[in-house]
Amino acid sequence: MALEIERKFLIKRIPHDTLISMGASVKEIEQSFLLPSVDFPVRRIRKVVKEGKTRYFFTQKRPAGGEFSREEMESKISRKMYLELQKERDLGLNEIVKTRYVISNGKLNYEIDKFPFFDFFDVMEIELPSENALFEIPKCIEIIKEVTTDFRYTNYQLAKEIPTNF
User: What totals of helices (H) and strands (E) does the chain contain, helices first?
Assistant: First the structure.
């Protein structure tokens, strides 16, 4: 089981062409949340399309005790398993569709998600090696505010309700 440590920010919207010129790779993501299990309150499946190739993933997450940390188990699955797991979907949650741009900067990846329901900003995540790891925001990225501990901006919460006040 891996430890996921990430910080999350609302950032001023960056045009597609600018992100590509920064060397970003692009993924189209569709994700659905499954009914929780006893051990994992957050379970999801993802369909990820990158450079015309489709891959499927099953992920389970639970709190890990730190401010920015969660335990995460993720595995690549077959299309058949993806369709089978769709039967466990939590029908009270919306499917999340987003475009993810990944920019590598040294040892860190900056993941910028563009959601169709946010017009003026994007959501950026940075996965860190530890909770106190230092990181530098690339100069062309304008932070609106940090939302690491504002759970309204987790994908799970966005699947429940889109926040309208920032």
Answer: 3, 9
